[in-house]
C2H2-type domain-containing protein (Taeniopygia guttata), 61 residues
Amino acid sequence: HSPGAAPSPSPQHPARIPPRPFPCAACGKSFRYLADLRVHERSHTGERPFPCPTLARGCPP
């Protein structure tokens, strides 16, 4: 590689992977931040944290 260039990852020196200490109990996907896990968990529960203004008015007959 050329001088001053960052070395590319190789099998002997893999790229540094940040830790992901928060795994999802439902699917096993891990997250770096607890808040990200909480948002992801809603994909399994179907929870919608904010009301939908369209549905709050009701549907036409």
In short: The radius of gyration is 21 Å.
